[in-house]
Write a structure and sequence with these properties.
Layout lengths: L5 E2 L10 H11 L11 H21 L6 E4 L2 H17 L5 E4 L5 H11 L4 E4 L10 H7 L4 E5 L13 H11 L2 E5 L18 E5 L10 E5 L14 H4 L7 H36 L5 E3 L10 E6 L4 H10 L2 E2 L1 E2 L12 H5 L4 H5 L2 E4 L6 H22 L2
Parallel strand pairs: 1-11, 3-4, 3-5, 5-6, 6-7
Antiparallel strand pairs: 2-8, 7-8, 9-10, 10-13, 12-13
Helix pairs in contact: 1-8, 2-8, 3-4, 5-6, 8-12
The chain binds pyridoxal-5'-phosphate (PLP).
Length: 385
């Protein structure tokens, strides 16, 4: 067991909740039947699968036939974008509109499509890390097949105008996908209101299990077979269902929806504490808009300081925090998200992401603030900043 920790990296992954864990256990042991089997053990599994789909549909205000279980956010992004692009190409459209600070699951899917003849248009994200719906309206043309813009950015926590972009896409007859992986843990999502055609969610970002997610795909919108084989997931994604995880995901979505309001208020208090302390630090910059953000993700750059050394020093104190995106760490490049905001390379390298979850306490935040300010002082004495 690791000795950690004060865990402040909830945008990377979250601890499974007790309620989710308990809901999953029966499906790992006594109710292990295959939902495709007609005897009672199978029917019991099929009922749990159907119930999970209904729970997810309720959480998103859609129909259960519009929910497709997947292996996670990355797969949902791939499936939606590839389906939309390839289907609409048959109408002679080959342009995809997106933003430069999407998750790699979106950016690299779009890059792969470019190799197959698609063109990409990137919306400006501005210094505050928010795209403008009017830019989307301006760049959509008769060649545009799909717009894919994330709901909430995973490194800086800014909320994008998904509903406005959805309305524009609807008006212009263009398909709209949104990666809502970071929105789902903190916002009530209504796919009708937001005019979304495809929407991606991941289990492990909302105190559910890893390796499971879902794709919402509006009825009548093109969706291509993704895994060939049996008739699972409305005949489009074969393979015996990962039932325990699917049950866990649906329970996590229900729990999140029930607690959304109170958790938001609790997190706002912690965030306020964090910002009022960190804003006072010399050379500190809060990255991304101050108000258009979810309360759980803060990203600060400290002039003259590399986030990597902060992450390692914090780790020695039992605190887990991210520098840049977890998915691109290990590579030497500064975060593509922070760079897209027009920041200097040195400030982008300094971006420290503090992401809160359901289980963080005020005590933990106080300890974190104390440790971080100590570390910053020490590092600055060394560098003479
Ligand atoms: C984590 C994350 C993903 C990937 O989800 P997985 O379930 O880990 O594949 C996609 N998009 C965003 C915004 C994320 O934060």
């Amino acid at each position: 067991m690791s000795k950690t920790c004060i865990y402040l990296d909830n945008a990377a992954t979250t601890r499974i909740s007790d309620r989710v864990y308990n809901a999953m256990l029966p499906y790992l042991r006594e109710s292990y039947g295959n939902p495709g089997a007609i005897y009672s053990l199978g029917r019991e599994a099929a009922r749990a699968l159907k119930n999970s789909r209904l729970m997810c549909a309720k959480a998103l205000s859609c129909e259960q036939g519009e929910i497709y279980f997947t292996s996670g956010g990355s797969e949902s992004d791939n499936w939606a974008i590839i389906s939309a692009a390839e289907s609409i190409r048959e109408q002679g459209k080959n342009r995809i509109v997106t933003s430069p600070f999407e998750h790699k699951a979106v950016l690299n899917t779009v890059n792969a499509l470019e190799k197959r003849g698609f063109e990409t248009v990137y919306l400006p994200v501005y210094e505050n890390g928010v795209v403008k719906a009017e830019d989307a309206e301006r760049v959509i043309d008769e060649k545009t097949a799909l717009v894919t813009v994330m709901y909430v950015n995973n490194e800086i926590g800014t909320i994008q105008p998904a509903a406005e972009i959805g309305a524009i896409c609807k008006k212009k007859g263009v398909l709209f996908h949104t990666d809502a992986v970071q929105a789902a843990p903190h916002m009530i999502i209504d796919v009708q209101n937001d005019n979304v055609d495809y929407l991606s969610i991941s289990g492990h970002k909302l105190h559910g299990p890893k390796g499971v997610g879902l794709l919402y795909c509006r009825k009548g919108v093109p969706l291509r077979p993704f895994v060939n084989g049996g008739a699972q997931e409305h005949g489009l994604r074969a393979g015996t269902e990962n039932l325990a995880s699917i049950v866990g995901l649906s329970e996590a979505m229900a729990e999140t929806a029930e607690n959304a309001e109170s958790e938001r208020n609790a997190m706002l208090l912690l965030t306020k504490k964090l910002t009022s302390a960190l804003d006072k630090v010399k050379g500190a910059h809060l990255n991304g808009d101050r108000t258009k953000r979810i309360p759980s993700i803060l990203n600060y750059s400290f002039e003259g300081i590399e986030s990597e050394s902060l992450v390692l020093q914090l780790d020695l104190k039992g605190i887990a925090c991210a520098g840049g995106s977890a998915c691109t760490s290990g590579s030497v490049h500064p975060s593509h998200v922070l760079m897209s905001l027009g920041m200097s390379e040195s400030l982008a390298r300094g971006g420290l992401r503090i992401s809160l979850g359901r289980y963080n306490t005020e005590d933990e935040i106080n300890i974190f603030i104390g440790e971080l300010t100590n570390i910053l002082e020490k590092l600055r004495k060394l560098t003479g900043f």
